[in-house]
Amino acid sequence: MKNKRSLLAIPYVGWMALFVVAPIIMVVIYAFTTADFSITGDNFTRMGLFTVIFTRSFKLAIIATLVCLLIGYPLSYAMAKEGKGFQRVAMLLIMLPMWVNFLLRTYSMMSIMENNGLINQFFAAIGLFDLINNVFGTDIHYFKMIGTQGAVVVGMVYNYLPFMVLPIYSTLIKMDNTLLEAAQDLGADTATVFRKVILPLSLPGILSGVTMVFVPSVSTFAISRLLGGGIQMLLGDLIEQQFLGGAYNPHLGSAIALVMMVIVVACMWIMNRFGDGEEQAVML
Fold it and tell me: What is the band of 159 on the pLDDT scale with cuts at 50, 70, 90?
């Protein structure tokens, strides 16, 4: 039986080795070499020139993750408390945008937030711009949204919110209601039950959601390019520029990708350690 299982694992191991391990090894080799493949550390020292991009990428990713958490947790909690029919409809509405291509969803956000987009057209139709111009003596005809960091964050939240909702909902829906009843029988009010029981038990879902939102947010390039107007460059744009752009330098791009990967893995490790500590505290 074990031999059969080992044989069945061969395609998976081969796939992982070819498409996961091998690319990582290539990135490491490129990161520590020059164009003639001589060993160097200059690729990492040059990254100090991109400190602003590193800071912007992690700042926007953290903001988007926090916004997704603030929206996703109450939504997941409300879904878990409702009946099966409501849960199915809500899940369909959450998953429906995911059936559309990622780029098409981002382009739709552009049409909504551009200078003559739906939001600005709506504000113009209700006379908001006329009111502002009359009160403050200005001459504005639209709110500039495309090309701002706010637009990039909105795009991240719109595209990655389901990745926060689904793991939290999965954790809450499996929660044993007898624990909540026992806490209430012992005199705990609603706020105490949530703080002492529900929140700690849902922490694995929160950490999974945070990881699933933060990782693609910090490495995205399509959202920052389309909604950021090419002005709000993030790490994903910088790496793509080194491999495909005019500043072709795959060795520098590999070094940036390697550092970003190490930082992301470190963040995930810290969150997992934090989650293990919280779970042990709840058990005690």
Answer: very high
Which residue shows structure tokens 């752009």?
A: 245
Tokens of 159: 């595209």
Is-contact 31 254, C-beta < 8 A? yes
Closest among 23, 53, 52, 54 to 250, alpha carbons compared: 23
Query: Strand, helix or coil at 39?
Result: strand
What does the alpha-carbon distance between residue 110 and residue 247 come to, in Å, rounded to a whole number? 27
**pTM for this predicted structure:** 0.86
Q: Are 250 and 30 in contact (CB under 8 A)?
A: yes
Question: By three-state DSSP, how is residue 33 classified?
Answer: strand
Tell me if 229 sits within 8 A of 5, measured CB to CB.
no
Across the chain, what does the average pLDDT equal? 87
Mean pLDDT of 79-85: 88
Yes or no: say if 175 and 169 are a contact pair by the CB < 8 Å rule.
Answer: no
Which residues have a Cβ under 8 Å from the Cβ of 270 and sit 6 or more positions away?
none
Contact 239, 257 (CB under 8 A): yes
Per DSSP, the three-state class of 212 is helix
